[in-house]
Amino acid sequence: MSRVFVTIIVLVSVFTVSATEKGKKGAYDAASTNYKVLYPLGSGQERVQCLARGSCNQKILTCPKECPERKPKMNKKEKACFIDCSSKCEVTCKWRKANCNGYGSLCYDPRFVGGDGVMFYFHGNKDGNFAIVSDKNLQINAHFIGTRPAGRTRDFTWVQAFSVMFDNHNLVIAAKKVSSWDDSVDSLVVRWNGEEVEVPTGGEAEWRIDLEEREVVVERTDERNNVRVTVSGIVQMDIQVRPIGKEEDRVHNYQLPKDDVFAHLETQFKFFNLSDLVEGVLGKTYRPGYVSPVKTGVPMPLMGGEDKYQTPSLFSPLCNVCRFQGKPGPGVAKY
After folding, report:
1. Minimal CA–CA distance to 270: which of 118, 113, 123, 163?
2. Model pTM score
3. How far apart are alpha carbons 168 and 220 in whole angstroms?
4. What are phi and psi of 182, to 5 degrees?
């Protein structure tokens, strides 16, 4: 039976237990999350004791003064402390948000940077659903929104929602449709197996479910419209909801209607344990020896394949090349 809970920090010497300690394989095994958190120093610098196998085992790592916390509340202004208990055995300061120029990113009028580091565009079509990743134990579909001004031969498109399918579960992260943008309003929707869940803004600012084989965590990386999604042992996603601004609309001549700012998702993925035969618009770029077919050196290198990757719905694991062998999660959400 699953247990849903919100983490509460208790001021004792050790207040977080890793997934490995619970008898499960940790999210990264001998890497960043395989540790237990110790009580911080008087300066506020957080500390951990590494549990990963290898040379870093049992070592205590301390966050630097420049980024003393793993989850700073002022995410836009402060870098977070990233802890790596693998053979690197180090702490570094990084932003906890999607890097749209980094590996595994999906941003803008869908622009991808593949696992091979090659940038390409995949336009799809408005109201279409496409398999971004399809593997034996993971399927990630994206729902595209868009518009086609008069005289255009294709749609302008953006990703409005993701459906993450694994085991027999379904996690949906989506941007709400809004007529005007307000930075003080949260425009993010999270659904677990068809039911909407609330991600707290206080405390650890996370929603978490502890399954028999893995944990699923959605944590806020800013007060609104920014989250990190982790499905242990499978995928990590840094997601931001953003609108199309008036200046962006003017420069690109999108000709957006006045009652829709086309709120969409900018995302960076990090995958774990993909197979050598992984498929999907982004997934296939992680295959060993993959050579991108896109034409480089042009302003907009295009990746085709809409016919191969289109799915009947956001929640369907079926496409012409899809490989997912699990069951689609219960519940269907509409946006």
Report:
1. 113
2. 0.81
3. 25
4. -135, 115
